[in-house]
Amino acid sequence: MKRMLSSFSVIFLMSVNMYGQNIPVDPSLRIGTLSNGMKYYIKKNALPEKKVEFRLAINAGSILEDENQRGLAHFMEHMNFNGTRNFPDNKLVDFLQSIGVKFGQHLNASTGFDETVYMLPVPLDKPGNLDAGLKVMEDWAFNATLSDEQINKERGVVLEELRLGLGPDKRMMDKYLPKLLYQSQYAERLPIGKKEVIENFKPDLIRKFHQDWYRPDLMAIVVVGDINIDEIERKIKDNFSKYKNPSKPRERKSFDLPNHEEAMVAIETDPDATGSGVQFIIKDSETYQPDVTVQQYDQSIVESLVNMMLNSRLAELVNSTNPPFTYGSVYHGGTYARSKEAFQGAADTKDGDQLNALRVLLEEVERAKRFGFTQSELDRAKDQMLSSYEWAYNNKDKNESGDLIDGYVNNFLRQEPIPGITWGYEHIKEILPTIVLEQTNGIIKKFVKDDSRVIVITGPKKDNIKMPTEAMVLNTFDTVKIADLKPYEEKTKIESLIKPFKSEGKITKTETDAKLGTTTWTLSNGAKVTFKKTDFKDDEIVFAGISLGGVSVIPDADYNTTKFAFDALLEAGLAGLSKTDLTHYLAGKQVSVSSYVGGLTDGISGTSSKKDLKTAMELIYACFTDLNYNPESFSAYKTKKSSMLANVDSDPQYYFSNEYSKFINQKNPRFTSLEPTEKDWANTDYKKAYDIYKQKFANAGNFHFYFVGSIEEGQLKNEVLQYIASLPATGKSSTFKDTGYRPLKGGYTKVYKKGKEPKSLVTISYSGEAPYNEKEALALSALGEVATIKVLEKLREDESGIYNGGAGGSFSKVPYSAYDFSINFPCGPENADKLTKSVMTELQKLIDKGPEQKDLDKYKEGEYNEYQTSLKDNGFWLQGIAQNQLDGSDQYAILNYQDKVKALTVKDLQDVAKKYLTKEKNIAILMPEDGWEKAKKDEPKKQE
Fold first, then answer.
1. Which of 589, 29, 17, 587 lies closest to 298 in space, CA to CA?
2. What is the SS3 assignment for 753?
3. Alpha-carbon distance 810 to 773, whole Å?
4. Looking only at Cα atoms, what is the longest distance across the chain?
5. Which of 305, 449, 691, 769 is the most buried (most CB within 10 A)?
6. DSSP character for 69?
């Protein structure tokens, strides 16, 4: 519960005071334990239809490794995808792809310090899939083959995953972790492990780990979906009860994060660090105990309110005109160790300002400790919490299985309560009114103490940046205790956003589309509103307002002085209210609205509950008519953004992407950099960007609004007439334009050198102009998916050269018709050329022979799977309905997509491969800086 209030399902009502009673368990959830100690959780949940989510949770992770096994808990996770009794070698991924499960996107697993969790969603559209899913879970639990051949092949893949984590952050973490995790086993058992162990361990060591820890009494299988509970329970008992625990099982020890009297301070720098920051942790004295009783549950609610109020104050500072940091937060909650919670804080800062950020974090905590919170703050936090529960409760019958299942996994692994949203909502309505300031003010005083403190400061190593000393850090804590602080000043409560006015707007035309289930109103100001009522959620409305134009219609000179300012405009607030004022006003409301000036469009986007639709409309109206002008807010935004990007060029991947983008856009005067430089900021004109925005949003007649969700037509009509039909309009129409600029054509190989770690990245791309063809567009997209399958098979499974990678193909219609196909993969620099040649060989096979039918079928099954789920998603329909406005595509494409996928043939994919992958290509390669070859030679040799 303390980690925390999010595991919701259906449960009976409980309205009496039950402080001495235990938190109930969702009665719709069936929980049982087999004779061998294995636990199971089963819940019927109808969404998505004909789908089931499986999880295998193992109460064992890297913390249990012996010294010579460091990294083998994670390695074991990999091996379960490389040979089991029923799915030898790489047949598991092959089979799951054949039934529509995508590797990495759907099918995955994770290893932590204390647990390993396997995730498997299975479509139930074909007989046998349910039993196959259970067979996979059974094999993952008990039947890994762990052959020498597959173990040795997988070493390279795991080493590539380890390689991805190398860099300045890892170098600094290696130095501060012994203090952050002082005298703890956790400091010595990072899940990724040690390179020398992964390279050289004897296969029997991983078999021993599997034998010791992959055992029934440390496992739970969790099944949630469109299933029959009795049937699943029977199958679990039949298939999993036969497995035995070892005759002499190793003790599953728990490990602590010890307390200590002295404060630990780590100040670490690195020449290649891309940012500066500070964090602190003050460990609880007592061992963490999961919430069991209602009284403990209620105490956690109070803690959550305290966390919300503290972070609301910090957000005000971040949104101020003189922000002390770009991001800051504090909270009381979990640590690396299950057995320990702590009061923690963190801030991202500008270089050299970490000590000041630490002071500000501590001062806000001290302010709350001395003076407490205000009643208005508590009321807002309560409103926000209640609103979140209410929204979840309203949608309780439309939750997707994937949103529910992790709560049950956490109940097994961490004993987090799973009372269900019905009980949770009824209880929160009962308990929130009883919580008073005395309770919240008392808790904050317990969070901060003088022992068991760890402070970590990190940043780039530069001659012009002076880092604080340990003494200065410790003195900050003492100084804050006696600082001259004032109580938090509460602003006047905001009662309304928009002053009442009478709208003269009308609906002049109504059109319906029976196929799409949409209604379109044309309004008297020229704006159009299309809406579709759905039952996908019982309380969700998503919306957008789109006008064609965007920055494409802005002259080059104006574009270059405004392009980085548009994202800052909403920082000034709306209708005379600051961003903080708006946050306070919206507390307790489930609504979000934002406006933008984009590449080809200008617009509005957002979400709302039914109850808060009026507020959403007010925000839309304010975005059009009353955007604040505040140069100070822009200056603050620029300061934060500059701090975040001050060292971005030290990031090899950003440097690579930016330099390559400069190269291919060298003939485009509108491109300067992916992110703003100091020169860009010096040339930026905030006032001009504001004026362009105001001009664009002064003509609502050029906008088409879309609403999808649990809409009540009468309510929507009233709000549309009041707030959208009354928007100003000029009577003119506009659209986007083609600027005429094009990236360089293919035929180049570029190598960029950045970074000290032996890490490379390869991008192979084909792009250019071509007449748009709908069938070719789909075939090119399919070719990208099939190529991804082949890249992973060849480069990962056969050559053990990459951890991840993939391909993508697309065809755009606007602002001009163009195709794009690219393949990307990270790898070791010593393998970049070899793997690039392997990719080109695979592409040539696609050109010469086309894809294998089985790979095309895998793509189709995956698309069918996702499409059927998407058809019940409001956001999917919003995008599908609006697409026609942008590019004139078939307005019914959303209805017949599966038929078009089904019609694709091997020849269709081969044809687009021949047509577009035989043209000139660009190859861009990121290599480390000179000297990496010598470092590679000095490394210990890998066992063959």
1. 17
2. strand
3. 11
4. 83
5. 305
6. G
